[in-house]
Target: ATPase family associated with various cellular activities (AAA)
Amino acid sequence: MSTEALSVEEEARTVEQIREGRERIYAELSKTIIGQHDVIEQLLVSLFAGGHCLITGAPGLAKTLLVRSVAQIFHLKFQRIQFTPDLMPADITGTEILEDSGGGHRKMTFVKGPIFANVVLADEINRTPPKTQAALLEAMQEHQVTAAGRRYPLDEPFFVLATQNPIEMEGTYPLPEAQLDRFMFNVLIDYLPPKDELAVVMQTTSRRAEPIQPLFTGEDILRFHETVRRVPIAEEVGAYAVRLAASTRPDRDQTPDFINQWVSWGAGLRAAQTLVLGAKARALLSGNAHVRMDDIRALAHPTLRHRVLLSYKAEAEGVTIENVIDQLLQAVPTEMS
Model:
């Protein structure tokens, strides 16, 4: 869908559809998901902005259920790929097979893999070797796969949600920094507070969950992508996003001292782009007419936590990436002095 395809009237209707749809989305998700408000918000922001998401958390935290529910709300084709140590690239992208076409003739036919869906859940992506990880990440970047010299475009919209277990767990293969950068957000999903955990136990042991009702379509999502990019942002707000990302790079002018001590590799240009595009989507979902500083700040953690590499000194001192981002938000002013 081209940018010119949206008239002024269509764009106004789309904006209103998004604003009204937010509460309906949360209402549908509440049928199966309790709590996790920040996680849901970040997933929706990345979906509306057209980005991919990495979800980090221990097993058994309803990551698969959440992603499946989101796909149902948007009436999108869903596929789940369980990543294992023996998974091969062709198991994801598909492969060519020899078929009998009649008359004694045979031909090669491409059989599509599970990557050919609108929403792909790459479950436990860090349990498979780098070669297989790379096959998925290439498809994410190019929106196509290559088999036997032929290119096959993927379905649109195309949205990958990759879950990973904490890297200290046994049998994991950490994703390289360059590949991590292809994910718009790294969303942390943690155990629920006792009150919400009790609500989950009571709800899931007393009745079956109500079916999720579709609210939108794939065409709606493509229109949302175009509308998000048109959300106004003041130059000083965009400049703050750039300063925030640039301040994560050690040994640069204006870099805070704690970054020089605790960070060995900072975020690149894509981090600032993600902050701005994500903030536009967040503003639209919140019903705001333009991007605010708070939109940028709210997305700093999911944007930066997988793009900033801590030093050995930070690890030795028990400093986490969350600590670093918290200090960064305090150290970088929203306005230039």
About this structure: Residues 15 and 64 are 29 Å apart (CA to CA). The first helix runs from residue 8 to 29.
